[in-house]
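Standup, Tuesday
Yesterday: got the pipeline producing structure tokens again.
Today: sanity-check two examples.
Blockers: none.

Example 1:
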Amino acid sequence: MKLSCADFTFPLLPHSKVLQLIRLLGIEAVDLGIFEDRSHHYPSEIAKDPEAHAKRLLGELEELEMSVADVFVQTGAEPSVAAANTPIAAIRDVNRDTMRRMVEFTVALGCRHLTGLPGVRHVDASEGDDWQRMCEEAAWRVDLCRDAGLTYAVEPHVGSITPDPASALRMLEDVPGLTLTLDYGHFIYQGMSNESVHPLLPYASHFHARGGATGQLQSTVKDNAIDFVDIMRRFKQADYDGYTCLEYVYVDWESCNRTDNVSETLLLRDKLKAASAGSTQGHR
């Protein structure tokens, strides 16, 4: 199992200190959250000079003997802002230019995986048009990344145009080559079962792991209802070779600021390691 940790797990620290903390936790790879107006680094700033930004970051990473597992790009402060499938053509054009620059940034970092969001439902657009734009933009990003030697994935999530496994599967059918950054928590939170999410596993090129339960988008490991033991077993059977990212977040949304992220990251790290090694000490 290849483990990484999200830099947005610790947003209150300067980024250099975040990297040091992740390394102190025994994790050698980082997921970079590049979220407009709400992360350590913004897409709009990186887009001005992707290679220079990558060079500065690489210096810090090399000093710590770390690498980048994923670059997670969000062009707005929240999913509904500058969404991938926005009806406004001018914003889609800006998004595409930003994604071109983010691909340059990802390549310069030596990373081979880029994640985005699928899009949302817009009240002033038909469901069919929203879906079509989502597919067109996802397909464009798949091609852009493939040409650069990258894998492109989207993360189905609460509030997105793909909020459940059925819609996520439909998206994958409509966009050949698309993969998933899969987080069971978005489905378990809504009261869905682990079994209902398992059909998405073969499409996962990246995996987000944090505790979750019905009504809790983020929970402690003690309260967790996601069957990580079974998921790790399924990954082993499928020879999954992507990263598993420890992705506790600290944000004032859905009470995702109620956990001790250092302690929970350590607890989940050890649980995943035991599960990946074949531990059979019960599920969850």
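Example 2:
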Amino acid sequence: MSRAARKFFISAFAPAMFGALALVSQAAGLAGIKVQSALGQPLAAEIQIVALQPEDFDQMQARIASPEAYKAAKLTYVPVIRQLRLAAERRGKGAVWKLTSAAPINEPSLDVLVEFTWPGGKLLQKYSILLDPQK
């Protein structure tokens, strides 16, 4: 590659590459759900937070999506969803969202739609929970 071509490449593409890196650094996401309870027990589950910048932890929020969001996603909003609560918890260098309910869950399967927001963005994530009978 000639010197002129290199100079053109750097001036044309370097800003785009640095912009892409800035977007990646702002990304956050949610990993799969790990269910720790059984059918007929209060729900206890964890969703691992991945790729969140440490300074964003105190500003991140999550909530169960509204009935309208369920409808838009073509999911059934069952009444038991109103009982679910989300709370963030730090774990070493990472964090998890704890998904819980005070009352027992008697639905063997449940679709939970989570709205997750942080300073760099927003994510809507569906989790399918299957609750096995107690052993």
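Quick observation on example 2: The chain has one domain: 28-130. Helices lie at 3-25, 67-72.
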